[in-house]
Design brief:
8-stranded mixed beta sheet, globular, 21 strands, binds glycine, alpha+beta
């Protein structure tokens, strides 16, 4: 097993010739970081490295992400422009807004497990587009290297097994999932078991040989259609043929002299990271201790206001009008005035930003990020939604299918798996993309990237990203320290403030005294970050100290 320390690969060249090109990568799994660093040695850039990491994560961390799911990839190019590639899943053509209602009530199991839970996967289309637009190497090579890991297998560790153990019942329902991820008695594999995934390896190799068409216009689409028709699903080969990864315009705001670039709808991440930071810019956070009750209270109140807006206004902007005014500084100042620095506010409903008629834009999940000395920076968050998604593996393919349909609002006011509620803007419709919280973000100063961050963990993604940015910009912390700070999260409904135990009892008691309903948790989320290095080091970075991820640097 690779150690949890910085990996430095100096292959082939003497040190004196090194430093020509440097690449950095951070993912939640040592093998995925290693795959990304290897790509730099093969003259790949940060986009190649991110795709290699993504495909490897689909093998070694497949309960979080894979080509049966979706992703958002935010890319900063050496010329200073951005590319935001949307590989979010879409609802099948036969989907309809009431498909999860039974007797007038939302039936959560339908949108979380099995055939109806699955959206048309977009991750592979996004990786393919990213490589075609920006990569130096061929997708087939990245697929081949990840396929080799799937064939050879890897040892299951505690982190994998605890997630596997939580979904045994779900996986037992689907024979191919049980065959791969459970033992002959239908139990989770024991610690140290070497998980080999020959079907997934074959699927990766077939895509390498025949292109993504194998998936979207060929055998995989046909097999899925057949499985859906046998299992009460709606998805057809046409849904696959019509899928396209979209190029989007990133959301941009500023925060205390820095430029913040985030992902637009169907992510809610970029909008609400911007909105919360805009509200907080009104306050002097630097004068407060970042583990004090006063600081946590203030940031919580900003989170609460933003999530109330999220529940009402946010959805796929190709279908619903998402107001541009949500990220306006004027609106943020108006919201900031509602905050009482002494006590928790009651926020009954969303507010109404200016220009509501103007569209903003025509612990599941995983975040990984790469950068290179040519100026490419990539922040990518990918997911199959909850652990092992829908639980379905399409027979013979090894591909775990998402349950992203649960990120739609099944019914106004009915909470999804993360307790999030939504409205008409996020109702199910054919071809529509469910609202996401994934928030790949890049922070710049004077046009130069200085920090990139993203996270896993449903709606806590947004708040983790906000907290990391505040730690870096307001408190001057390097990435590892920024990610190590005690986290907290409020999403308006339920009216509950989640706080990591590490915040300490004094602050927790003081928050209760301010009127917050506090729930203390051991840990919250998983974020990864890369920053510009100092003292001759090109990059610094960190995987979340709460997990087993690895940051590494490669010099060639
Ligand atoms: N499935 C989690 C998210 O996209 O927010």
């Amino acid at each position: 097993m690779l150690s949890r320390v910085v990996l430095i690969l100096l292959l082939g060249l003497p040190i004196s010739q090194a430093a020509e090109r440097t690449g950095a990568a951070v993912t939640v799994h040592p093998l995925a970081t290693k795959a990304a660093l290897k790509v730099f040695q093969q003259d790949g850039n940060a986009v190649d490295a991110a795709v290699a990491a993504a495909l490897t994560l689909g093998v070694v961390d497949g309960f979080n992400s894979g080509i049966g799911g979706g992703c958002f990839m935010l890319i900063r190019k050496p010329d200073g422009t951005f590319s935001a590639i949307d590989g979010r899943e879409t609802a099948p053509g036969a989907a309809n807004r009431d498909m999860y209602l039974h007797g007038g009530r939302a039936k959560p199991e339908l949108s979380r497990t099995g055939a109806l839970a699955i959206g048309v996967p977009g991750a592979l289309a996004a990786y393919d587009l990213a490589i075609r637009d920006h990569g130096n190497l061929a997708l087939a090579g990245h697929l081949g290297q990840a396929a080799a890991i799937a064939e050879q297998g890897f040892e299951l560790d505690d982190a994998y097994l605890s997630r596997l153990g939580s979904v045994v019942k779900k996986l037992r329902k689907f024979p191919d999932s049980a065959r791969i991820f459970l033992d002959g008695d239908g139990n989770a594999w024991p610690n140290g078991h070497r998980l080999r995934q020959p079907d997934l390896a074959r699927s990766y190799r077939a895509i390498g040989q025949h292109s993504a068409d194998w998936f979207y216009r060929g055998p995989f689409a046909l097999k899925t259609e057949q499985w859906m028709s046998d299992n009460g699903g709606l998805m057809t080969r046409d849904d696959f043929a019509h899928y396209d990864a979209r190029r989007r315009e990133p959301v941009q705001t500023t925060y205390r002299g820095h430029e913040i670039v985030g992902f637009p709808p169907p992510s809610s991440g970029g909008v609400h990271v911007a909105q919360i930071l805009n509200i907080l810019e009104v306050f002097d956070l630097r004068s407060m201790a970042s583990d004090s009750a006063g600081f946590v209270h203030l940031v919580t109140e900003a989170m609460r206001l933003a999530f109330a807006d999220r529940a009402h206004w946010l959805g796929d902007a190709d279908f619903a009008p998402v107001p541009r005014g949500l990220t306006s500084k004027t609106y943020a100042r108006r919201l900031a005035k509602k905050i009482d620095t002494a006590k928790a506010a009651k926020v009954d409903a969303h507010s109404t930003p200016p220009n509501v008629d103007t569209n903003l834009f025509g612990k599941h999940t995983t975040h990984f990020t790469t950068a290179d000395s040519d100026g490419w920076w990539v922040a990518c968050t990918a997911t199959v939604n909850t652990t092992f998604g829908s639980g379905v593996v399409i027979p013979g393919t090894g591909i775990v299918m998402n349950n992203e349909m649960d990120d739609f609002s099944a019914q106004p006011g009915a909470p999804n798996a993360f307790g999030l509620i939504g409205a008409e803007a996020n109702a199910v419709a054919p071809g529509k993309r469910p609202l996401s919280s994934m928030s790949p973000t890049i922070v710049l100063r004077d046009g130069k990237p200085i920090f990139t961050v993203g996270a896993a963990g449903g709606p806590t993604i947004i708040t983790q990203v906000v907290l990391a940015i505040i730690q870096v910009i307001d408190f001057g912390k390097p990435p590892a320290e920024a990610l190590g700070q005690a986290r907290f999260h409020h999403q308006w409904k339920p009216d509950r403030l989640l706080v990591e135990k590490a915040l300490g009892q004094v602050a927790i008691d003081a928050l209760r005294a301010k009127g917050h309903t506090v729930k203390v948790v051991n840990t919250l989320g998983a974020a990864q970050a890369i920053g510009l290095g100092q003292d001759g080091k090109p990059f610094t970075g960190s995987a979340d100290p709460r997990g087993r991820g690895v940051f590494g640097v490669s010099r060639k």
